[in-house]
Amino acid sequence: MQAADGAEARGRHGDRLLCPAAVCEPGAILVGMVGADARVGYVLPQVPVSERFIAFARTSGAPERRFRFASPCVEDACRHWCAGRCLVIDQVAATVDPRDAAGPVAVPLPLPRCSIRAECRWFDQLGLDACAVCPFVVTERRTRA
Prior knowledge:
Elements: E1 18-22, E2 29-34, E3 40-48, H1 51-57, E4 67-72, E5 81-82, E6 85-86, H2 87-95, H3 121-126, H4 128-133
Antiparallel strand pairs: 1-4, 2-3, 2-4, 5-6
């Protein structure tokens, strides 16, 4: 099986899908960086998160405000999991209409190249509709003291 962007299918993480809104921790994958426009720009190829990266990223506050990470989806152990689904992408997809270019958010077309699409929980759940709104998901928006 091949993803739309040519990435290898599931395998590196076993049969577990990846959560594309994970926390910055050792072993996570750096998915992208949040730009000045508050949209995620994707990083290719996959970059594993190391202790060194974490130390650097934390020098400017919560890394999740500036980067997006992926880790194996923990399903029932996550507060965003309900009835066998990730509510994060369901809520984002319900809020941002990818067919409404006149709305407050312009959908990036063609879809961004993504290093985790073949293993992504959101893609598995909603297909390309998830990919259309994924760049607008910033994991941490709060400012921590």
